[in-house]
């Protein structure tokens, strides 16, 4: 696994129940602020095998970004089960639910 991928996986695993992170926020925390799309690919490819809490990752607007209606509904239900609420515009208030990990890139990558 590439170092960036390992950092992304570790960061996603660290998101606690009832909190969310954005794709871009994860990319920046992993050391590559412009790699949000790479985070999407990592989630798509590794969510099941790495048992990642994929449902806790949303887009920069606090919206579910999945195109498949069934998967989007599953994500919403999982988030609601964890106590996350949505606005009337179907967004998650980022200021209320955003997780800010205490891990710096150096701390995350020191386990490699």
Element layout with pairings:
Elements: H1 3-14, E1 21-22, H2 23-29, H3 36-46, E2 57-58, H4 69-81, H5 94-97, H6 105-109
Parallel strand pairs: 1-2
Helix pairs in contact: 2-3
Description:
The protein has 112 residues and is mostly helical. Helix content is 46%, strand content 4%. It has a two-stranded parallel ribbon. Helix 2 crosses helix 3. The radius of gyration is 13 Å and the shape is globular. Residues 105-112 have low confidence and may be disordered.
Percent helix range = 40-55%
Strand content: under 5%
Shape: globular
Instruction: Give the strand tally.
Output: 2
For the record, give the distance between the C-alpha atoms at the N and C termini, rounded to a whole number: 10 Å
**Strand order of the biggest β-sheet:** 1-2
- What about the largest sheet? 2 strands, parallel
Continuous helix count = 6
Radius of gyration: 13 Å
Order of helices and strands: HEHHEHHH
Uncertain segments are: 105-112
- Roughly what is the average pLDDT, rounded to an integer? 92
Structural class: mainly alpha
